[in-house]
Amino acid sequence: MGLWDDQVLPRVIDLALGRPVREARARVAAGLSGEVLEIGFGSGRSLAYLPADVTRLLAVEPAAVGRRLAAGRVAAAPCPVEFIGDDGQALPLPDASVDHVLTAWTLCTIPDVDQALREIHRVLRPGGSLHFTEHGRSSRPAVARWQDRLTPAWGRIAGGCHLDRRIDELVAASGLTLESATTHPMRGTARLGFAYEGVASRPT
């Protein structure tokens, strides 16, 4: 990684995905329990919203600065936190080994998002679920065209982030069953942001 991606961007993300999105974090964490895998742990911003029923959080995070920024939140976490790797495309976990998976503004940046979703399907226990809050392609054609134009340049400054992925379709194509999914424009980013929130389960 270069200086920007390795040292600066994790700090920018820590601020941008902190207080402004706390309601979304609370919504996506609702219903989590048991052993939870978070892909794209970042600086640990989701920890404060984990329900008491979560017994352990397994964290995947590629940015060393993000992990350092998370230290205080990990120390105060309501459950044990274990860093297990840095690549959501190759999870170092056995099949059917976690109760839930959490992603928060992560699926936009993983290079092979289809492979990452196959991995999520693999490690979820039957009946387990993926809880996601993401951003992606807008349902408004004019906005989607802007997203297509801006994504190449945006990705270079935002850690490979894609503005134009259809998150609900990608999740459904992985073999998971969408239990709920909502979409809405993101406030303040009319030509960039379109939010996806939902839960998808692994069939029993």
From TrEMBL:
<dbReference type="InterPro" id="IPR013216">
    <property type="entry name" value="Methyltransf_11"/>
</dbReference>
<keyword id="KW-0808">Transferase</keyword>
<protein>
    <submittedName>
        <fullName>Methylase involved in ubiquinone/menaquinone biosynthesis</fullName>
    </submittedName>
</protein>
<keyword id="KW-0830">Ubiquinone</keyword>
<keyword id="KW-0489">Methyltransferase</keyword>
<feature type="domain" description="Methyltransferase type 11">
    <location>
        <begin position="37"/>
        <end position="131"/>
    </location>
</feature>
<dbReference type="InterPro" id="IPR052356">
    <property type="entry name" value="Thiol_S-MT"/>
</dbReference>
<dbReference type="InterPro" id="IPR029063">
    <property type="entry name" value="SAM-dependent_MTases_sf"/>
</dbReference>
<dbReference type="Pfam" id="PF08241">
    <property type="entry name" value="Methyltransf_11"/>
</dbReference>
<dbReference type="GO" id="GO:0008757">
    <property type="term" value="F:S-adenosylmethionine-dependent methyltransferase activity"/>
</dbReference>
<dbReference type="GO" id="GO:0032259">
    <property type="term" value="P:methylation"/>
</dbReference>
